[in-house]
Amino acid sequence: MNKERLKLIVPTNEYKEQVMEYRKTFLENEESLDGCAGLEECNTYEEWLDFDNRLSKKYGENYVPSNVYLAIREKDNKLIGIIDIRKRLTDFLYNYGGNIGYSVIPDERKKGYATEMLRQILPKCKNLNINRVLLACDKENIGSAKTIIANGGVLENEVIDEVNLTKSGVIQRYWISLKKRYADKFVGNRANSELKIISVKDDYFNGDIYFYNFIEVKNKILIHNG
Q1: How confident is the prediction for the chain on average, in pLDDT?
Q2: Crossing angle of the two packed helices 113-127 and 142-150, in degrees rounded to 10
Q3: pTM > 0.90: yes or no
Q4: Which side of the chain, N or C, has fewer Cβ within a 10 Å radius?
Q5: Percent of the residues in the chain that have a pLDDT greater than 90, as a whole number
Q6: Integer Cα distance of 4 and 121 in angstroms
Q7: Looking at the domain 6-130, which fold is it?
Q8: What is the three-class DSSP state of 71?
């Protein structure tokens, strides 16, 4: 893990040139500007900053407000990445996108910055009363999966990418619970078990269901009657 400190800040004019250079780098590399609130579509910084007006016109009733943050390295004030929180989930985001998107500039990858960005933004999600955070990533993006898992992400399932967001054609969906979980406490050290968490969202139930598969009982408890 890289020990150089990051801070998440809302975009300001101080970072205008760095943000537009960030955009240029991604476009030249033909990479997706994930978590950047449509930066790839904007020719000026001022246009990009007009998040609500611009994106509500684009998406109409499917528009989801988001909070966008720049990840700035403190020692040299360098823009390392961009991350956003989508405040609710449409059907599209529930199936393919999730609550959080993020990206890191190419020359600063594999240094632990994405993990730190995600770690710092989770309390901001909780402050927005988002207590269960959904993240999605390309099955081939091992680095992104490790970032999510390192922050408590639990894989729910893999879905076919029907909207062409990934290289592999498969999207992995992870949930991070920001509330304390108790479902694994009763097992203790008495059994070797596998825990699977299924997240359900329908007209009747919205939450996590826990399934235990007991592989081996380690310490038996004998109960005597009488």
Answers
A1: 86
A2: 50
A3: no
A4: C
A5: 77
A6: 17
A7: Aminopeptidase (3.40.630)
A8: strand
